[in-house]
Design brief:
There is one protein chain. The protein contains 9 helices and 8 strands. The chain is of the alpha+beta class. It folds into 2 domains: about 150 residues, Spore Coat Polysaccharide Biosynthesis Protein SpsA, Chain A; about 80 residues, Serine Threonine Protein Phosphatase 5, Tetratricopeptide repeat. It starts with a helix and ends in a 5-residue tail after the last helix.
Length: about 250
Amino acid sequence: MLRATYRDHPNITVVPISNSGAATARNVGVQHSRHQWLTFLDSDDTVDPNWLAALVAGIDGPTVGIVSCGVEMVDAHRGLVQKFPKLQSKAYFDYRVLFIGGCFMLRKDVLQAAGGYDDALRAGQHNELAIRYCAAMKRKNLGAVPVRKKLVNIIDRGGKSIRKNHLSVYMGMRRCAEKHGAYLREVGDLKLLHHYLTAAGARALRVNKPVVASRMFWEAWKLKPFNPMGSARLLRSVLLSVLHKLTDRPA
């Protein structure tokens, strides 16, 4: 249907692929793109009429590596949330960016130098890419341009989404921790590593993997041993692991 609808449109190319996940779809899109600057929208995103023009206006010279804007989203726990490009942590070389779908426009050559999206990830693709993309920008001496405007809306339609898929989020956060753990320790960004580990542990419990959860929480606890919440999570996961072993259930 899409191919028929946009068949004669000069600026739209529809590339059919099998259902291989968002990361693979984005990489295929990059391969077929014809321009230097790229951005990615998800199915639950809507944008301001001036969204694209505002991002393009931020490309004010050859030393720009990324342009990012603000977003408004509905959070299940906090209600309406607005986020804007902010000073990121050491792993992102203190760039002022926001790596949420639709909120950033990046350079194709830098994206390819960084290795593109990780096809193995079903969740957390933007966050994982951010680490490698910012490192590639740093190597090329490129900067980030923040746009202090809310130009993207993420709509929670109440149905199934990758953010609510506990198994996908668990696998994504665990892969981020394992893939970038050594690097995050090297640059001293233990806060981000702690986030990956605790997020993986929490989702592992949701998918009935208490043994794995206890390993994740143990690694996180070693980073912040005096954190009461971390200690409670570790204790709970260990108790559940013992219970599962006693009942001889897979964990």
